[in-house]
Amino acid sequence: MNQEFFMYQGYPLVRSGNQIYYGYMSDSYVVMMQIVHQCETNGIQVADKIKVYQIATKEPDPVKAIVKTSDRSSLYEAVDLANVWLKRAEKEDSAQ
Prior knowledge:
Layout: E1 6-8, E2 11-16, E3 19-22, E4 29-41, E5 44-56, H1 62-65, E6 66-72, H2 75-95
Antiparallel strand pairs: 1-2, 2-3, 3-4, 4-5, 5-6
């Protein structure tokens, strides 16, 4: 099954309900963003509280797989942080 995903700054961005996954599952890390709260602005639901998790993809224990966490107040801030985390992880992997 060959699927096309929405790409943002070189990484796939996939939403499933209130969870957004950012990054390649084949890489060392992926970022999960969980929309905790939404408010209505001009008739549109806008995420205003997002929990961001950097997750090690090779760790079998889901609790131990969480490497970093953060809270953000907008989806833009959350995706921007996720991009920084993935770029840093990519540099660390290539340095090894």
